Amino acid sequence: MAKKVQIAGVLGLSLLLSFCSDKNEQNGETAQYLVENKVISLTENSNLKSRIKTTSVSEEDFTFDLVTAGIVKAIPNHYAEIASPFSGRIIKSFVKLGQKVAVNTPLFEVTSPDYFDAQKDYFDSKQEYKQASLNLRRQADLLENGVGVRQEYEEAETENSIAKAAFDNATAAIKIYNVEPTSLVLGQPLIVRSPIAGEVLENNVVIGQYINDDSEPVVKIASLNKIWIVGKIKEKDINHLNKLNKVQVELSAYLDQPIVGTIYHINEIVDEETRSIDVLIEVENDKRILKPGMYVNVRFIDQPEKVILVPSRSILQGEDDSFVFVAVSEHSYVRKNVKIGGVSGDKTVILSGLDKGDKVVSEGGIYLPQL
């Protein structure tokens, strides 16, 4: 019985050694690469040799050419929304839709109890100031002729100063509404005037309508000789804008009439959702081709420059960065992190991480381990 157990044990050990030997031999036959000190070397019999191809890195001429969507908007200080400064009733309109207006052009007329109170305050303070000035001159004459009292003169001087301050405040309050106080008549309606030169884009004036002082604007005016276009550009492309000045604006309705614009401002805040930056482009619009709210294509074109370009398919994406595989010898490769820029056809600009003359894996990099 003991001999049988011993024989069975020997046979089991022999089978186990034979299995392990066969398994090691199989692993040796199927191993595609070896990794040592982060260098990936293909084995002698690796079938990856036929799948991996390399290309030498060189500097090429690259023109940054980016097309993005943009929206037309009026320049804020060339645009005005006009409402009544007082609650009241509109009794007259002076403009129509599309009319060109100058600064201080009458727009509409409104009667308002609040405006009447402002007029009354002006005339009352004017009269009080006039009386205080007369009293001050009288007290000064009396004092000069030796029959006046110094205390009464000083009191008159104080009253005159107070009355003058009240009159100045009332005058300033009237002038806020583009009314000349010297021609003011008590009870006259308020004429609301245009604060800018431009054309009437929207006219919602209704004769007889009662509006509150917090109502929506009834007239919208804009000067559209110049216009802004808001384009969005990805943060990775922002460095190209520092060397740009002119951009090209393209409209689907006027494909044969590209418009040249100037970069006016680059926003300092990145949109956290789209990871893009707003770029304001100022454009001449004398022919009124561009309308606020219109969508256009904005084309950013840079001057040609020498850059390192690699096939886009050679760039792989890690968790936090982009990388390529670079050949260090025949069938041996290392991973290098790179910073990418723009795209030119089927190639991508490399801003840093590679040198001219490096050989990058242009095909088959996905078969190598991402160390």
From TrEMBL:
Q: What molecular functions are annotated in GO for this chain? A: transmembrane transporter activity
* Gene3D superfamilies linked: 2.40.30.170, 2.40.420.20, 2.40.50.100, Helix hairpin bin
CzcB-like C-terminal circularly permuted SH3-like domain: which residues?
309-364
Question: Which keywords accompany this UniProt record?
Answer: Transport
Q: Which GO CC annotations does the UniProt entry carry?
A: membrane
Question: Where is each CusB-like beta-barrel domain found?
Answer: 226-302
Q: Superkingdom of the source?
A: Bacteria
Cross-referenced PANTHER family: CATION EFFLUX SYSTEM (CZCB-LIKE), CATION EFFLUX SYSTEM PROTEIN CUSB
Into which family does the record put it? Answer: Belongs to the membrane fusion protein (MFP) (TC 8.A.1) family.
Q: What name appears for this protein in its UniProt entry?
A: Efflux RND transporter periplasmic adaptor subunit
